[in-house]
Write a structure and sequence with these properties.
Blueprint: H1 5-22, H2 28-41, H3 55-66, H4 72-80, H5 83-86, H6 91-98, H7 100-114, H8 124-134, H9 138-153, H10 160-180, H11 184-198, H12 200-234, E1 239-243, H13 248-258, H14 262-266, E2 269-275, H15 281-293, E3 295-296, E4 302-303, E5 316-321, E6 327-334, H16 335-352, H17 359-374, E7 397-401, E8 407-411, H18 416-423, H19 425-429, E9 431-436, E10 439-441, E11 453-457, H20 474-505, H21 512-521, H22 527-535, H23 541-553, H24 559-573, E12 577-578, E13 587-589, E14 601-605, E15 611-615, H25 619-626, E16 632-633, E17 635-636, E18 645-654, H26 659-670, E19 675-683, E20 686-695, H27 698-709, E21 714-719
Parallel strand pairs: 2-6, 13-15
Antiparallel strand pairs: 1-2, 3-5, 4-5, 5-6, 7-8, 9-10, 9-11, 12-17, 14-15, 14-16, 18-20, 18-21, 19-20
Helix pairs in contact: 1-3, 2-4, 3-4, 3-9, 4-7, 4-9, 6-7, 7-9, 8-10, 9-11, 10-11, 11-12, 12-15, 18-20, 20-22
The structure holds manganese (II) ion (MN).
The site of manganese (II) ion has 4 residues, from loops.
Length: about 725
């Protein structure tokens, strides 16, 4: 406080006194520190009026302390509200010196101010919600109101263009906002000041007329009030009575709305009685007294005491016929009701005395705040309790601008792609890039409230699979999924066409089962995925189909198929009996001889791998036994010679009509058994395939083989056995 020490001391003391008078407690040292820091930071700056810039934060702090008093934190934040934006001082310094709360409020006020720059206000309600989505502390809004109020009071010094822009913003955003907040006096003043700059002619005209009528009006109000005052005093009541000030803008609005001249609107007199009592019943008592003096007008009575307005406004309104037959509206309320009406949220807080005696009370406060903003609350499900000043209204949504200044609401964590789909699905589908606040950004950038977003599109661009990883809205998720599915369908279809052409050209024959098998052997999840890979050229058809052709020429079956057959046959028979018992012994089938049900078998006890099951005729086994190690154990197929088991045949022949019928006839009628599966592959004039069927024993199988060989056109029939594989 080097310069103007005396003056600074005087104005600081004034602020301190105001705080002490209006606030529950004051951290004097902290207030002084904020005062000095703000003074120093702004000391080289001047306002449009030419006065030192510091006057502005100081006056804003005074408004907070005097007109919407809440707590010392708000006043300190008001002193500092412009230092981060306008000076070298960093928000981290504020946090360090004044604590996190003050830093958050200052930061919030700065951000709120930035939102309107260069934007035309088209959707006022959305603007208000957007502001709320950015605000986490009620006090941010209070400081912002005070800031705006002081700027409006000193608006005469800026240029006319700016005057109009600020006035319009104030009228459309801040005044209704203040109303929602229950700040009636702030609202009226903001409206009147806006009115003054937006329609100077009408404002001046109205101001002149009111001035001319003032004396007349005052004498009438006196005439009306005198008997009322006498009677109230007679009843021993403490009260304040006033001719309620009429606000220019509200008169003007009524004139427009009702299409009536000034005189008619203005002749509706209004009187307000404020009772110095905490007993709301006294309001009704006073109402009775008024009605004894003047005749009430029916249907004009409103009881907001028992049913408060959504912004917690409480008062009794009644209209009576006064002297000379003129209508007079009388408002009756207690001091507390009046404070809440004038100072809204701040007064509400004051009467709470900074503490809640129960959870229910805290919840009531929270719900009230909610109602203030929502008016009619849509959010009935949400009942979580907010701590002290914390707001989390609209915190799950953001509001961003289109290049034309329209506001779009999106969920938190939305990206430019979400925004693009929000505009139109076509914009989403062809979105190739985005600009946020004029800068090109990646498509997965997280958007914030107040961002202006521009989407760059290209006809050739299509959704990218990776978009699904970062989009947030249901709309964009669904659209991307739809596009991917459609793209996939198209790929599958064109892959299938390529496949069919190739198969035909190579003179191969594939039924749908064959195709699925091939797909699985190539590790695809079904034939669709195989076709897709073909379309994407991830699969070389010549390579895939070449071995198939080779195998056919050798008229044998791929090894894989024998393995799965062996598996089926071994499982179907129900495992192995070791030493005559079905014990829980670890065993496996030897790869050298691949025994399958029907084969005479023997077990060989290995070290570490349990029992290996070999055919009794296995050469490898014979060699092991020759070395003299006798570790053989008797094993058996459980059902051989008593029940049916699965066996297989490989069959090659001429592809003539009716051949399949002949084959199945031979098996089922002559040998009286059942076929389990048939897998026949026709190629040119030849066919070959495998048949699995149920047999009693190997003799039974031999008879079936002999019977089949007798059919015309059949070349070879063999037991399906690893030893028959090429
Ligand atoms: Mn400011």
């Amino acid at each position: 406080m080097a310069l103007g020490v005396t003056k600074n001391k005087r104005i600081f003391d004034e602020l301190l006194e105001t705080c002490k008078h209006n606030l529950p407690s004051v951290d004097e040292a902290m207030l002084k520190k904020a005062f000095e820091l703000s003074y120093d930071a702004h000391k080289n700056d001047f306002r449009a009026s030419g006065e030192p810039y510091f006057n502005h934060p100081y006056e804003v702090a005074m408004i907070v302390a005097k007109e919407i008093p809440l707590d010392d934190i708000s006043v300190i934040s008001a002193l500092l509200h412009d230092v981060v934006e306008d000076t070298e001082i960093d928000i981290s310094l504020i946090a360090k010196e004044f604590g996190k709360e003050v830093a958050e409020i200052v930061d919030g006020v700065t951000k709120m101010g930035g939102v309107f720059k260069g934007q035309e206000i088209t959707q006022a309600e959305n603007y208000r919600k957007m502001l709320l989505s950015m605000v986490k502390d009620v006090r941010v809004i209070l400081v912002k109101f005070a800031d705006r109020l002081h700027n409006m009071r000193t608006l005469e010094f800026v240029n006319p263009d700016k005057q109009r822009r600020i006035a319009r913003e104030t009228l459309e955003i801040y005044a209704p906002f203040a109303h929602r907040f229950g700040l009636a006096r702030v609202k009226w003043e903001l409206e009147d000041l806006s009115f003054k700059y937006l329609n100077k002619e009408a404002y001046d005209d109205l101001a002149r007329k009111i001035k001319n009528k003032r004396r007349e009006r005052e004498s009438y109000i006196n005439k009306f009030n005198t008997p009322v005052i006498d009677k109230l005093k007679e009843h021993g009541l403490k009260f304040e009575i006033s001719g309620r000030p009429k606000h220019l803008y509200s008169i003007y609005r009524k004139m427009i709305k009702r299409n009536k001249p000034f005189e008619e609107i203005y002749d509706l007199f209004a009187v307000r009685i404020i009772l110095e009592s905490n007993d709301s019943n006294e309001c009704y008592y006073v109402l009775g007294i008024i009605n004894q003096i003047y005749i009430p007008v029916p249907d004009r009575f409103k009881d907001y005491v028992s049913i408060p307005k959504t912004n917690n406004y409480q008062s009794i309104h009644t209209t009576v016929i006064g002297p000379e037959g003129k209508l007079v509206e009388v408002q009756i309320r207690t001091r507390k009701m009046h404070e809440v009406a004038e100072k809204g949220v701040a007064a509400h807080w004051k009467y709470k005395e900074n503490k809640f005696t129960s959870d229910a009370e805290l919840e009531e406060w929270v719900n009230w705040i909610r109602d203030v903003f929502e008016n009619a609350s849509k959010d009935e499900a949400s009942k979580e309790i907010l701590a002290s000043f914390k707001l989390n209204l609209y915190q799950d949504e953001i509001y961003v601008f289109t290049p034309k200044g329209d506001l779009r609401r999106l969920p938190v964590n939305s990206t430019p792609v979400d925004f693009a789909f929000e505009i139109h699905s076509k914009v989403g589908y062809h979105c190739i890039g985005a600009k946020v606040n004029g800068k090109i950004v990646p498509l997965d950038t997280i958007l914030h409230s107040g961002d202006q977003v521009e989407i760059i599109t290209s006809k050739n661009q299509h959704p990218n699979r990776s978009w699904a990883m970062f989009v947030t809205t249901h709309k964009s998720k669904a659209a991307i999924r739809r596009w991917i599915n459609k793209e996939e369908e198209q790929l599958i279809q064109s892959g299938k066409e390529l496949w069919e052409k190739k198969v035909k050209k190579m003179k191969l024959s594939f039924n749908s089962d064959d195709t699925i098998k091939l797909a699985k052997s190539l590790k695809f999840d079904g034939s669709g995925q195989l076709f897709k890979a073909i379309a994407q050229e991830k699969v070389n058809l010549d390579e895939v189909l070449a071995p198939k052709k080779e195998n056919e020429a050798k008229s044998s079956v791929p090894e894989l198929e024998f393995d799965s057959f062996a598996n089926i046959a071994r499982t179907d028979i129900g495992g192995i009996l070791v030493d005559g018992k079905s014990e829980n012994v670890m065993y496996s089938f030897a790869k050298c001889c691949n025994p399958i049900p029907g084969d005479p078998i023997v077990g060989y006890i290995t070290i570490g791998e349990g029992i290996k099951i070999h055919r009794k005729t296995c050469d490898d086994l014979i060699n092991i036994v020759k070395k003299g190690e006798n570790r053989l154990v008797p094993v058996q197929w459980p059902t051989v010679d008593s029940n049916l088991f699965v066996a297989g045949l490989t069959i090659v022949g001429e592809d003539v009509p009716g051949i399949l019928k002949d084959i199945s006839h031979s098996i089922t009628s002559y040998q009286n058994t059942n076929i389990k599966s048939v897998n026949i592959l026709a190629n040119n004039s030849m066919f070959k395939g495998t048949i699995t069927l149920y047999v009693r024993n190997l003799e039974h199988l031999s008879r079936i083989i002999e019977r089949l060989k007798k059919n015309k056109g059949i070349y070879t029939v063999e037991r399906f056995d690893s030893t028959n594989l090429v």
